[in-house]
Amino acid sequence: MAKRKLGIAVVGIGGAVGTTMAAGVELLRQNAIDTTGLPLAGFDELADCTEIEFAGWDLFDSDLATAAEGHEVLTLKQFAAVQRALGEKRPWPAIADSRFLSNIAGTNVISLSRVRDAVEQVRADIREFRAQCDAVCVVNLASTETLTEADNSKFASLEAFEKAIDANAADISPAMLYAYAAIAEGAPYANFTPSLSADIPALVEFAEQNKVPVAGKDGKTGQTFIKTVLAPALRSRALHVDGWYSTNILGNRDGLALSDDGSLASKVKTKSSVLDDVLGYEVEDHIVDIRYYRPRGDNKEAWDNIDISGFLGQRMQIKVNFLCRDSILAAPLAIEIARCLDLARERKEFGIQEQLSVFFKLPMTRADRPEHAFYLQEKMLLDWLNKA
Amino acid sequence: MAKRKLGIAVVGIGGAVGTTMAAGVELLRQNAIDTTGLPLAGFDELADCTEIEFAGWDLFDSDLATAAEGHEVLTLKQFAAVQRALGEKRPWPAIADSRFLSNIAGTNVISLSRVRDAVEQVRADIREFRAQCDAVCVVNLASTETLTEADNSKFASLEAFEKAIDANAADISPAMLYAYAAIAEGAPYANFTPSLSADIPALVEFAEQNKVPVAGKDGKTGQTFIKTVLAPALRSRALHVDGWYSTNILGNRDGLALSDDGSLASKVKTKSSVLDDVLGYEVEDHIVDIRYYRPRGDNKEAWDNIDISGFLGQRMQIKVNFLCRDSILAAPLAIEIARCLDLARERKEFGIQEQLSVFFKLPMTRADRPEHAFYLQEKMLLDWLNKA
Amino acid sequence: MAKRKLGIAVVGIGGAVGTTMAAGVELLRQNAIDTTGLPLAGFDELADCTEIEFAGWDLFDSDLATAAEGHEVLTLKQFAAVQRALGEKRPWPAIADSRFLSNIAGTNVISLSRVRDAVEQVRADIREFRAQCDAVCVVNLASTETLTEADNSKFASLEAFEKAIDANAADISPAMLYAYAAIAEGAPYANFTPSLSADIPALVEFAEQNKVPVAGKDGKTGQTFIKTVLAPALRSRALHVDGWYSTNILGNRDGLALSDDGSLASKVKTKSSVLDDVLGYEVEDHIVDIRYYRPRGDNKEAWDNIDISGFLGQRMQIKVNFLCRDSILAAPLAIEIARCLDLARERKEFGIQEQLSVFFKLPMTRADRPEHAFYLQEKMLLDWLNKA
Amino acid sequence: MAKRKLGIAVVGIGGAVGTTMAAGVELLRQNAIDTTGLPLAGFDELADCTEIEFAGWDLFDSDLATAAEGHEVLTLKQFAAVQRALGEKRPWPAIADSRFLSNIAGTNVISLSRVRDAVEQVRADIREFRAQCDAVCVVNLASTETLTEADNSKFASLEAFEKAIDANAADISPAMLYAYAAIAEGAPYANFTPSLSADIPALVEFAEQNKVPVAGKDGKTGQTFIKTVLAPALRSRALHVDGWYSTNILGNRDGLALSDDGSLASKVKTKSSVLDDVLGYEVEDHIVDIRYYRPRGDNKEAWDNIDISGFLGQRMQIKVNFLCRDSILAAPLAIEIARCLDLARERKEFGIQEQLSVFFKLPMTRADRPEHAFYLQEKMLLDWLNKA
Question: Are strands D189-191 and D135-140 parallel, antiparallel or unpaired?
Fold first, then answer.
């Protein structure tokens, strides 16, 4: 394993995924778990998982042990094993803006009276953290922000974006500000959420100019992962998809955020874009539902019904019911993304890291059209990892 | 499309799959259906689907229209459109041996009093059919034969096998005799069933010696298709498979044959071998059930429950319910296999055609270990088709 | 069987359910089907099913054979058998009001320039039909109307309602006008839809005054049927329902109507009221989704996920997937309802017929609170049918 | 609540169900859980749940805390709360007979060299336990015994049975010996397993003669519970069941026992008898599969597929997937059965207690034919409980 101490600064470190990442690395350090769930465990050029340090911002100031206890992701034994280590970490104040996140209100906040000052505060946090590590990546795991009718001209160039920051423009979201701060500090940045962030022209320009690797967006964990595995196979067998109905029930903080219509729109958008692209034709009846449903907590459930036609035009159905654990699927992918971005930095490959597409529902790409088919994405990543 | 008239001689032509193949080609000729379900529709080097002729053997002597009506696979409109064309075709008498197929008894049979004579009869059928076509392939779609405790030394070399035929040996199955006859006549041969057939050393030797392409075995249509699509993806995400329970209910003639324990054993064997191979470790709780259940007729149903562990060793479940139509999935694959074998013959590539692995549950290979992962199999086939 | 010719006048006779009712009775007459699906087939006091005549109103003027063909509910053989009989029937013009039904626009309409005149037209249709039968019932099977913010005072008494009709009031829905006309003509009336209709005080008053049996509302066919069967059993075992997520996909004209938000609200309301009532406590996470999804046509599908707690507070899940046929379930119930209303009329039992609760999602009752538990409802009906 | 201390002597007290019963009562005593899962919590004439004492026999001599830990049914917090109380209880040696239970071998055994002596030992255990309580019931929760080809004449009368005991007859099973001992001691007896036990004529005769209430057999917990709830509803709607496929996967000690063919036969037999009886006709395609599948442990899963025909003979499907917890469902029912038997004893009602049918897959009855429909069974029980 590469000998460097990688710091991961998480936006939303106190959430279910953030605390699971921190707990998982601590349990790996203690040899209490194996590397199940970490797809790139065997690649030595990446930073060693047990050398990773965590820090981050959160709207709630609970220490990470308290936060983890509330999310009920860890078993009682796992919680006991990490309680001390996580209890020592407390989130930095976070940027709060109720225009972008209405259902979640915390008190551990950076004042937004002057946007530029908020950015400077985030930059200072990153710098301070980097002083304790060999390198730092920033990963956005905050609740999904609402889709707004923004004035896109502000996002069209770095120059316009800088001016908008200085003018305290209301339509710049927290997710964009964190991305901006990370790039400004030369810290590789990944957006694991559906929020609009580094995927605006201004920030892509900034990442290239400042030589910073960036990747996103929206981690491909459960239903969309299965969708991008199955859909290419149906295409391979020349089975025509007549309709695909996907519904999701989830009850964690992520679900609560999504019970806001605007946030839901962001999420549904990244989930919906996939299918037509993989199949090569428009599926007229592709429906994606997401409902906040509390009995299951962090244990997300997806139910997919797929209507297909085969030979002689005859109809068949496939139903997939995935009883998954949101944070258990997301946390290791977020770790792998950070390790890959760190490797890209080492290899001096900057800007959009398209080879990380396999980790995202809506991959950022240099070209117009992302690859969504899982096996092609995976090949892209493995080829990159295996190159001399 | 390649301009040659391909004849497909089907063992079990009167079955649900055989009649669906014949009806499908007729409907394509009439432009009544499109090429949905035919994965290789776009490859011009293959024989044109609308130029295919069908013939074959069956234990029942009904003409193909009568047989198709009984299987209830075609819609009434489709049946009406093909009734005349199929009504003109009547199966040749078939080799019947109740030691290998106890639940199905037909009357359209070739005497087995002397095995060599039966083989000669099958060879004569093939020769006569070839006189009407540019080329002939033989595809085995007969009901699954029982697994027997055979004296394997008879199958170990062509010489031993020839002697066993001449000695009227009881443990040579009908499936082997058809394969032998096809190879003897230089007709490419595919085994779409789980029965032991061209996959014995004697017949592989014969195929190489006589310069005949062969492929098999057991068409990968429903549940195993899904399994070889999903399992590699779970491996890619480092999700550990703790158990995989697969059950199937089906009510067609294939199902009736499988209600015999010996035939069931054949089938379960080809379905079971897949998973450990794809994952790279042994799944201790991999269970495959197949039950004869009549209400659904040809509309097979599979239910899979997959138990997986992810990060922190935590448990999740995936359930897949495939309401499929057996013959609708199988018929176009059997057509594509025949077209590929015909192309192999044209290209003078003989013996085992490993590049057809994507079509089979238990692919015949030259090397020890077959590839089961769907996307790797598909790549192998596409590379072969696309080579100059 | 009781010897009388029962006429059923259907609002929406050209729909999938209406045409299935007419086809079913014709097939029974021809002895082409048995009484499967007709729960009260053995009760001789009811009008004989084979003596039933159909007529009705529809926004589309296609004859019933043409309409039935479009709905694709009948098999080709069944369609051929009823084509002549159904082809002779053509719907009367219907009351159209786009304020209550925005997604469906037909041309076979009664002018609403004067509401009173429209009512008189409907009454004349009923009178004319009754001249050909021994008795007539009216059943509402029209598409679900939108829930409006009506001025309820107009519906509070018969007097106010009559005035509102004469004043051409905009918030009186077509469903109410048909119910009013039926009651005015002394024809028993049932509302098989979720629309607001005979369940307003004005019309209940009218039914009692005019001695007319009425029943409703919203036929209990698929998901809610299962819900009112399972939920009482969970209560009986003292299993606590923590959440119940119900989703539905359907693609027929009913589904299209429900893709309008207002109509959807009507439907979800009748589906939602059931659970808390049966269980005796409020299920906080009871969610009902209904989505218009075309690939399945009339073949509705429901998926329910039920989260329950048992002994020691431990969690379990039940999932029910109902692949049902909307019209196949609804048509026989609508027939049975009409036969029961006809019997109530014979027995001189007027006003709300609470004993028909088993057929409805939201039963009309004399008392405040309907019984929803299926077996208690059924007992009520059987006791009524069996009384001397 | 009735003021008496009820002792429950459990055959198989160290199993998952037995330890869950004991833990549950202890947690109720501690007020750590509520009465969720206990259907008869509100009936004051029954013995108070918090006054119940447990004892019993087991092939393994671990104390109940150690046994409970191994079954992983309790949460860690629940285990901690009951560890001391359960740790003080250790099972009496049990009757072991490998002819009836081949897959489970324990060391805490009563010698069977003389059957009569074994019976006397069990009787002495019961007497000693009763000395500490106001009354004692015996409940059989041992692993399912294999079905044997017994000489039924030995079971036909009490006299023959007594002789067989004295003759050390090999075909008398442990389950029968426990039932005999309980009845001999005047202790009410329930058989919660599918094993042949008190349901032989000899023991029914003994129970009546000795004035002892008995009930059985095979607790109706998961799949069969759902089946007897749904099937009557399908009958009520005149929907015809064309086939019912039930499969079960379970991984606890009960599952291991069932992986023996003979035990499996016992279990499948009690599960299968239900359906035809409820529907009133023979379902030709009723299949019940049970498979030992370890990843889920005590978390049993059932998957049912039901094929039904409705009006016009058209086909529909219902699929039910029950992710249940075997012991969580079984333990409270076993407690309720014991409390009801105790009440029967108080009320001086002896012999077969048919009113407990709701708790059993194959209810013992005085008449020929048991009632299987859940709501009719429940009514029978409630009527009995509510009678003055």
Answer: parallel
- Which superfamily, per CATH, for B223-325? Dihydrodipicolinate Reductase; domain 2 (3.30.360.10)
* Residues of chain B neighbouring C75 (CB-CB closer than 8 A): 76
Tally Cβ neighbours within 10 Å of residue D80.
11
Report the run of H or E that residue B290 belongs to, with start and end: strand B285-292
Report the distance separating Cα D173 and Cα B65, nearest Å.
59
Contact partners, residue B6, CB within 8 Å, separation at least 6: B47, B51, B52, B53, B133, B134, B135, B136, B137, B338, B339, B342
Antiparallel, parallel or unpaired: β B285-292 and A213-216: unpaired
The answer to whether D373 and D232 have CB atoms below 8 angstroms apart is yes
Q: What is the ipTM of this complex?
A: 0.94
Q: What share of chain A is helix, strand, coil (3-state, %, to 5)?
A: 45, 20, 40
Confidence class of residue B352 from pLDDT cuts 50, 70 and 90? very high
Q: Strand A135-140's sheet: what is its strand order? A: A53-57, A6-11, A135-140, A189-191, A213-216, A351-352
Residue whose entry in the numeric block shows the structure tokens 């985030």: A122
Q: Nearest to residue A32, comparing CAs of A88, A72, A97, A85?
A: A85
Q: What is the pLDDT of residue A250?
A: 87
Residues 199-228 of chain A whose Cβ lies under 8 A from any Cβ of chain B: 225-226
Cβ–Cβ under 8 Å, residues B176 and B197: yes
For the stretch B76-79, contacts whose Cβ atoms lie closer than 8 Å and that sit 24 or more positions apart, written own/partner, are B76/C75, B76/C76, B76/C77, B77/C76, B78/A312, B78/B23, B78/B27, B78/B32, B78/B33, B79/B23
* Cα distance between residue A345 and residue C378, in whole Å: 71
Q: How far is it, in rounded angstroms, from Cα C61 to Cα C341?
A: 28
Per-residue pLDDT for chain D (388 aa), expressed as one digit of tens each? 667 899 999 999 999 999 999 999 999 999 999 999 999 998 999 999 999 999 999 999 999 999 999 998 999 899 999 999 999 999 999 998 777 776 677 888 887 788 899 999 999 999 999 999 999 999 999 988 887 776 788 888 999 999 999 998 878 889 999 999 999 999 999 999 989 899 999 999 999 999 999 998 999 998 899 999 999 999 999 999 999 999 999 887 777 777 777 777 777 777 777 899 899 999 989 998 888 899 988 888 999 999 999 999 999 999 999 999 999 999 999 999 999 999 999 999 999 999 999 999 999 998 778 888 999 999 999 999 998 6
* A60 touches A69 (CB < 8 A): no
Task: Say if strands C94-95 and C109-110 run parallel, antiparallel, or are unpaired.
Answer: parallel
Nearest CA in chain A to C241: A295
Count the Cβ atoms, other than its own, within 10 Å of residue C356: 25
Q: Which residues in chain B have their CB less than 8 angstroms from residue A311's CB?
A: 20, 24, 33, 36-38, 328-329, 331-332
For D287, the 3-state DSSP assignment is strand
Helix axes A374-386, B223-236, angle to 10 degrees: 30
Instruction: Write the pLDDT tens digit of every residue in A211-224.
Output: 999 998 999 998 89
Residue B138 and residue B189: Cα distance in Å, rounded?
5
Distance from CA of C300 to the nearest CA of A (A): 12
Contact A206, A183 (CB under 8 A): yes
The identity of residue A141, as a single letter, is: L
Touching check for D49 and chain C: CB below 8 Å? no
For residue D250, what are the β-bridge partners?
Answer: D292
Confidence of residue A150 (pLDDT cuts 50, 70, 90): low
Query: Domain spanning C6-219+328-386: which CATH class is it, in words?
Result: alpha beta
Residue extent(s) of CATH 3.30.360.10 domains in chain D: 223-325
B240/A36 touch (CB, cutoff 8 Å), yes or no: yes
CB D86 within 8 A of CB D104: no
CATH code 3.40.50.720 region(s) in chain D: 6-219+328-386
